[in-house]
Give the backbone structure.
Amino acid sequence: MNISDLNIDELTDYMLSIGEKKFRARQIYKWLHVSLVTDFSEMTDLSKELRKRLSDECMITVLKPVEIQTSAEDGTKKYLFELSDGNLVESVLMRYRFGCSVCISSQVGCRMGCRFCASTIDGWLRNLTPGEMLGQVEAIQRDCKERVSHVVVMGTGEPLDNYDNLLAFIRMLTDPNGLNISQRDLTVSTCGLVDKIRQLAEEKLSITLALSLHASDQEKRMELMPIARRFDINETVAAMKYYQRTTGRRVTFEYSLISGVNDRPEDARKLSVLLSGIGAHINLIPVNPIKERDFKSPSRQAAEAFSALLAKYGINVTIRREMGRDIDGACGQLRRRRLNRKGI
Ligand code: SAH
């Protein structure tokens, strides 16, 4: 059994099933998720017998950093981790004035096929377990020795395509017995699985939901994102409205600006119509060009002009500060480079 995947209730059931007291669960959870120990022998307030039993019956998920890149420009750190089965995932640490934010992956690879994204090129291999998602935050906290205050699920993978594990991860991440990160400080980004967005709304969580929109109409979105063939753009935006109404949490929209593709004045106008009445926030991200595709990032002036036009139409907009440009900053680039080097 992998003990890092168990939430506090499951850990409690396990303790009771082996004749231990209930409070042992909380002790173990704290060792794993607050002290961040990697071995049962370090759990010094448990009896020797219990430690022995745990090491006979359980594994702890420990993500091994195989490469760490640090940006000389802004201190952003990109981690490549090896999982116990040898698969690789990447995560990013960003330092802001408000604290440390970690961007994690939710799957090994991705099957959504967005045209501009490096994570999807080699396809999908498997889902990450709750312990492996949490393990990325914990391994980074162990390395940087600062408290991680914010988490964004915006790395490789589609989180809503790994729904049950995502939910289990959210509950563990925000558990007061563990890292105790507030749900308000967690953002989940989706390419738009409409049925799952609606399901998530019913969970009544207070996390922030971001939609990767990237186009102002259905036709252009279908060109860039295969998911648009399954769910129409209007239906997708309606699901985001539903999420906002049901949870009371403001939603955000991600829009990667691609020169000559989705940054025309016409796009700004259509976007403002599409999103009217939501009071939503749009994050503009100049596309991070990947060598496998011929997409170009607009100039700073062009991005600013697009932003100003949206603001004129009454849309709340920011151009996302690009972090870690000098390292393999775009989703999936670091892992892909490593796989290529290994000849996989
Ligand atoms: N699958 C989820 C989360 C992972 S991608 C989603 O689609 O939202 C995180 C964000 O990075 C998404 O908005 C995605 O569209 C964007 N992205 C991927 N590759 C990019 C690139 N090369 N340049 C800019 N943004 C990119």
Observations:
- The chain has two domains: 3-57, 64-341.
- The radius of gyration is 21 Å.
- The first helix runs from residue 8 to 17.
